[in-house]
User: Which sequence fits this backbone?
């Protein structure tokens, strides 16, 4: 059962919680040990909460998952982890995540509770409502960034929040487009909301949000806020990394079908990962290395 529990946590999805570190990096607090510790602990709390959400969602979707060619292998759907034990696991993860958030900062616990409540509503109802489901995904990323800002006691930049919201919406609609393409005519059986998304609409939204995300990031790099806070225009040097990452994600969504999620495909895609590493090195060099 231990292996089933570990698989249910979906460690590979924890990469999304790195958004919690965004305020730490862009507030130039990476050289502050206390801020780093608080931010890392906040990431850990969101990892526990997100795993609680995944377990809870698998409980709710157990019947649909059994009809899915890949999801039927998940621990709960396959019977490797009983529903009763899954409920206990989800409760423990949620309580530890919320308790840890409170110890870091009481306001962080409020944000974490909001994240948890939103995802419970998503699992029961909101994931079946087209466009609202992606709005929930976007809100989840936004709450991660707000939680990261709260953990280190800084005011989140409006530009960072805008870029996060657009990027999250882009990723969310990309995920739906990927799922619809892979599932084909069985989309509604595997995820009810897929039958309610016209493929042409998803394609338009994907390209529209790609352009808006890149535009918002470009404007951020040259905004008065960035110029005043960072004292440099060199953030513009990171724009090519963002453009490549956005275009590569579109290619993954429209051209690859090696996994049930574009997130899984991204984590296996060498060009995407190399580009992401290059972006991280460039950002750290500009913000902290005096480029």
Assistant:
């Amino acid at each position: 059962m231990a292996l089933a529990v570990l698989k249910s946590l979906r460690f590979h999805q924890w990469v999304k919680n790195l958004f919690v570190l965004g305020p730490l990096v862009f507030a130039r607090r990476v050289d502050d040990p206390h801020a780093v510790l608080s931010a890392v602990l906040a990431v850990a709390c969101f990892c526990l909460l997100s795993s609680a959400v995944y377990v809870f969602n698998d409980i709710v979707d157990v019947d649909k998952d059994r009809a899915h060619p890949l999801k039927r292998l998940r621990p709960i759907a396959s019977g490797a982890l009983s529903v009763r034990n899954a409920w206990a696991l989800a409760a423990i993860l949620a309580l530890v995540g919320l308790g840890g958030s409170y110890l870091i900062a009481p306001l962080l616990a409020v944000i974490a509770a909001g994240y948890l409540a939103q995802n419970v509503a998503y699992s029961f109802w909101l994931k079946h409502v087209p466009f609202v489901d992606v709005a929930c995904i976007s809100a989840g990323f936004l709450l991660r960034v707000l939680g990261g800002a709260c953990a280190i006691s800084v005011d989140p930049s409006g530009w960072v929040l805008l870029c996060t919201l657009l990027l999250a919406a882009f990723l969310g609609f990309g995920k739906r487009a990927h799922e619809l393409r892979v599932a084909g005519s069985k989309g509604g059986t595997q995820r009810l909301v897929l039958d309610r998304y016209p493929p042409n609409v998803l394609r338009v939204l994907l390209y529209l949000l790609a352009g808006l995300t890149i535009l918002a990031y470009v404007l951020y790099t040259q905004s008065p806020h960035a110029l005043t806070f960072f004292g440099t225009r060199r953030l513009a040097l990171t724009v090519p990394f963002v453009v490549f990452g956005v275009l590569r994600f579109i290619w993954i969504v429209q051209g690859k079908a090696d996994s049930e999620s574009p997130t899984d495909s991204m984590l296996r895609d060498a060009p995407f990962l190399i580009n992401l590493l290059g972006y991280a090195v460039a950002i750290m060099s500009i913000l902290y290395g005096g480029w």
In short: The first helix runs from residue 2 to 9. The chain has two domains: 11-156, 157-291. The chain has 15 helices and no strands. Residues 157-291 form one domain.
